[in-house]
Amino acid sequence: MRKKIFFLILIVMSLALIGFALFKGREKIKVSALTYPYSYVSKVNNNDVIDIKLLINNNDSYFTRMEKIESAYISGIEGKMKLNIEKIEISDKKTKIKDDDYYLVHYYFNIDAKFDSNYYLFIKKAYLYLTYSNGTSTNIYIGSFTYVKYDDNYEDLSISSLKAINSKAGNDGFYGILMGIRNNKDELININSIELLDGNIKDVKIKIVDDITSSEYNDYFNDLNFVNKVEINNFDQLYLAISFEYEDNLVFPPSNIGLKINLDDASYYLDNFPFYNKTSLDLSKYDLIIYEYK
Amino acid sequence: MKLTLIFLFVIFGLGIKDANNSKVYSSTGHSQFSELVMVDEDAYIIKDVSDEFIDNELKDLKWKLFGTREKVLNDEEDATFVSNTIFSRSNKTREAYTFTYDTSKIVYTALSVTTKGSINTKGVFKMKSKEITVVGDFGGEKKQEDSTKDVENGKLSVVIYPNKMITLRIVGKAKVTNGVMKKFIFGICSKKGAYEVVTVTSTCYELLEEDANA
Description:
The structure holds two protein chains of two kinds.
Chain A: H1 2-26, E1 29-33, E2 36-43, E3 49-56, E4 69-76, E5 79-97, E6 100-111, E7 119-132, E8 140-150, E9 157-166, E10 174-183, E11 189-191, E12 193-196, E13 201-209, E14 230-232, E15 237-246, E16 256-262, E17 267-274, E18 277-278, E19 280-282, E20 291-293
Parallel strand pairs in A: 2-8
Antiparallel strand pairs in A: 1-3, 1-20, 3-6, 4-5, 4-7, 5-6, 7-8, 9-10, 10-15, 11-14, 12-16, 13-15, 16-17
Chain B: E1 6-8, E2 33-38, H1 51-59, E3 67-83, E4 87-91, E5 97-102, E6 111-117, H2 121-131, E7 142-144, E8 155-160, E9 164-185, E10 188-211
């Protein structure tokens, strides 16, 4: 009798295990994305590495295997860029979204294109298209994508100091930049405008200030005496306050952005500088899109 | 703490390397912060309170057969911080030179723990990082697929002029939680002391040029 009960329990347990394994095998892969304002600024010969962050509920599926990715693109209404996968990194820590555990996965891509002259692409709503060898393809909204390549950089101008002005308590992002800029030539230089190279930023204006080490720098941004143009005398240095507006309310404010200083017959570019980073986020505040794949 | 959905992600190679290393001397008690200032004037960091104050707070913690008794003194209080200097280069020659630094190599922790007394920093870190759901570069080992190249983004080139010094540091906002704790085994208090957890919420990099002789 005991033997029969034992075998019965064994059979029930085996069936449960088989059922569980089959169920696991059919479990859907859920993917979500942190919608960043991705921005890359560099010289034409620089090999940029694009780091796209996805949240995936399975850390061991075809989704996170490099060899399974057949093609990759970032695409939107404004344009398309072909990508090559270089590396995938999966965090071992999990976070919960709507009752499921998710892993943060970094997909590192390089751009499959050569540039020999200035290039500018801004995709306001950018999607990551991935095609896998099993026929699955994705179309994941990842935020915005700014990609800038420049050929020549003006050598007689240089940045001596740079810092972002953090938003007041409770707000995200930064609302201004303080910059020290130096004219290294024996001639006056006209700065006609400054551009912050992220398509989400508009109305960039500048103003000469006395100093940028003062702790009262918030006052620099309280008046409206901002202009587009300033001059720097021969071998002189200026301190500038740079104010700007954001196009929309962004989930993540821009962080690593480059800038372009427009002069009379040339431009000075600064590659991405880590002005601001948001290092924690309450996911419950955001309406993340969850994509499901078999 | 209502932190179950707090999600930490850290860019620029943030790791946990410093988290257990905060017993080294620091004016804030945390090895990576040179300044840590509470926004609320009534709030305080553990480094600024006396041993007598901690002993008095520990007296409030009642006996227990097994486990931990804890009293939170400051809960998720807003603070601002200044990091230690990431690099500082001066030029005492007559020629300007270009210095390039790879900001993607900066190791910086989003969660810093310090303790006073016999409490183990590593243990508090383990306990607190469980309360906060953390993923990303922060929080230990990452499983990595084949790598063909190192990440090349994040190179910062600056020209350093004669008699000038360039410094890069990080400033930002943080949340500070601190308190006192006792651990009991068979009713015997095995460990006691104060702890402090600093969660960095945002960072800004600052590049500053000064006179080399200042």
